[in-house]
Specification:
alpha+beta; Ribosomal Protein S5, domain 2; Alpha-Beta Plaits; 4-stranded antiparallel β-sheet; 11 strands; binds L-homoserine
Amino acid sequence: MIRVKIPATSANLGPGFDCLGLALQLYNSITIETDRPFQISLTGSYCNGIPANENNLIWKTMCHFWELIHFPTPSVALTFENHIPPARGLGSSSAAIVGGLVAANTLAGSPYSKYELLQVANSIEGHPDNVTPALYGGVTLSVPIEGGILPRVLGLLPNLKAVVIIPDTVLNTEKARGILPPQVPRSDAVFNISHVGLLIEAFIREDYALLKEGMRDALHQNQRAALIPGLLETLEAALQAGAYGSALSGSGPTLLSLIPEGLQEEVCHSMITKINQYGIRAQAIVLDIDTDGATSSTIL
Ligand code: HSE
């Protein structure tokens, strides 16, 4: 029996649109029993609307990988345990793609390296900012290079906690990308380039006082506030409560704050109170940073 565990991820971290992300200690898992009739079982907190048949994204990704390496599709029974809320900006589809690839690769005897799996994952997902931390763990930078993505792990953030505010409502990534203008003013581009530089310094030096400014953005958060009432005000409330920095998680609607140990209650309370004022119900969870990325183990 093979078990693959894949972390949730939060992309962008403010200015790092489509290139920065981090992994969180909230997991989906895939269990594979070989030499069994084909079957998909779903368990965990989020099963509604997820197909338990050949149209399942994890299964489709596994088949895609086996086709790529000319490996005959084995007969397997699969159990998918879902704890990452879907369509909330916490990388659930990247977790499905990365999980499917790691599972299929393990079953085939691990012919692909992590770097090679990243290239396949990126070609399926279309943007690498969730798949890179889902594979590598920690906070990652994905650099588009000729022929693929160069992944860099910037740090493992041992002394940071993440407050994750998850609204009851879902937001489709395509819709949240669709409202962004195709071109950006040069001044906004300069703002984000310089802020990503500052953010990288903050992570590499573990100088988290730099996060407050470093996580500010000009390319997408203001625009997306039209889809998520109270977005900017709730991020500001987190800073007022002592968070190091705060940002929209991926394309939303989840909000992320990075905080020092001990401030969980204040930051959760402050963010939930503020977002409630805008008529949005949400739950707050506090998570540590995942440092391993997707892992696979064989259970005898
Ligand atoms: N970076 C993407 C976006 C989401 O903000 O649209 C995750 O890939």
